[in-house]
Amino acid sequence: MISKLGLSEVRIFDGFEMSVSEMEEMLNWGDVIVQQSPMGIQTVANTVKFKQSGKTVIGDYDDLSFSLSPFNPAYRTLGLQEVKINYRGFDEMLWKDGRDGFVIKENYFRYKSLQDLLHTFDAVTTSTKFIKNKYKEFNENIYILPNSIDFDLFKPFPKKRNDQIRIGWTASDSHYAEIWMVKRIMRKVFDKYGDKIKFVLLGNLTELYSEFKSHELERHDFIGLDVYPLKQAALNLDIGLCPLDNIEFNLAKSPLKWSEYAALKIPSVCSRLEPYTCVEEGITGLLAANEGEFVDKICQLVEDEKLRSTIANNAYEKNYSDYNLEKNITLWVEAYEQAREKCELPLLDREALVKDIPRTLQTSDIK
Question: Which fold has domain 165-322?
Fold first, then answer.
């Protein structure tokens, strides 16, 4: 969007598709380097190198990576403790140090590297106040850039009439903690409405496939981001679900899922938790504090077409006003400009800022 509006020159690098020489040329070209969710000892060293050469280096974080649920597959490389669970009356180690690629010492290095990076960056950008409050002890220059919608990409399709009410959930494997919650909620909704509803899943939570009959569940795999908005619109949903388990990782999330549904004029039922405090009950969405309330709120929407339409239109207008990327993009440009101004110091002063060896390059604090 920055490039589209002519606000600055932008080049995007991809470590999976570009050669080392191509990335080096691009990094040398840029004045401001923005890294998405970076961590690792090599990244600390590279950031120090970039700063010493006069670059402004910014880290962007959209998650609290080290607070995730142990049921998230990413716990393998981000978890810091062993995890034991009771399964069918037996204690089992879900994560044991040294088994199945789970190595606490290596994960601890990643954790310390994140702290060092936050300290080293010229600025940090994040999508929520919750994350800012968690990271502000490491960097005083933190900017909140709210996840926003490109309304040129997210366009609602004309609504097709269906014999069934289509209830959708878009979820990656970071939502493993919500699988059981959604299963119980939707089973109760099916018990009440039967074939009147269809559960539509967009994502890679394959564990849900066996929980519903083939005529109850419609499955769709994730696709490329370039066509993701079209895929969402083509699902022709009547109701969108935004359930979250009450854990710190989820409290740091943004209301992006609600925003995407709203941009497609789909009314949502959202967990009554931190990410969805922007949702006005009964106006721009419905809020549920527990599974029973989720069932009740879904049923309200199933039975009231006018309520679905009213909430959908209100949510669309709210997001077009407050979470519109074309309107909000100046926040990105201002953050980058301010970070650049703060670090435009004589080279000797720049070197003084990064003269200390980052903690992650030492091993004395690893237990």
Answer: Rossmann fold (3.40.50)
Pick from 220, 218, 227, 232: which is nearest to 156 by CA?
Answer: 232
Report the sign of the C-alpha dihedral through residues 247, 253, 255, 260, in that order.
negative
Strand residue runs (E) in 178-334? 197-203, 217-220, 239-242, 268-271, 286-288
The three-state secondary structure class of 275 is helix
Q: Give Rg (Cα) of the chain.
A: 23
DSSP helix, strand, coil percent of the chain (3-state; round to 5): 45, 15, 40
pLDDT number for residue 161: 81
Q: What would the two tokens of residue 12 be? A: 């995007």
Per-residue model confidence as pLDDT tens digits over 275-298: 999 999 999 999 999 999 999 999
Instruction: Look at the block and give the residue holding tokens 């050469």.
Output: 53
Q: Are strands 165-171 and 239-242 parallel, antiparallel or unpaired?
A: parallel
Q: Cα–Cα–Cα angle for 255, 259, 14, nearest 5°?
A: 80
CB 191 within 8 A of CB 159: no
- Per domain, the residue ranges of the chain are 20-68+108-147+325-361, 165-322
Record the tokens describing residue 118, joined without a space.
């936050």
Which pTM value belongs to this model? 0.89
CA distance 287 to 273: 9
DSSP-H helix ranges across 30-178: 41-52, 75-78, 104-120, 129-135
Please provide residue 51's backbone torsions phi and psi, each rounded to the nearest 5 degrees. Answer: -65, -40
Q: How many CB atoms lie within 10 A of CB 56?
A: 23
**Percent above pLDDT 90 for the chain:** 74
Q: Per-residue pLDDT for 96 more than 90? A: yes
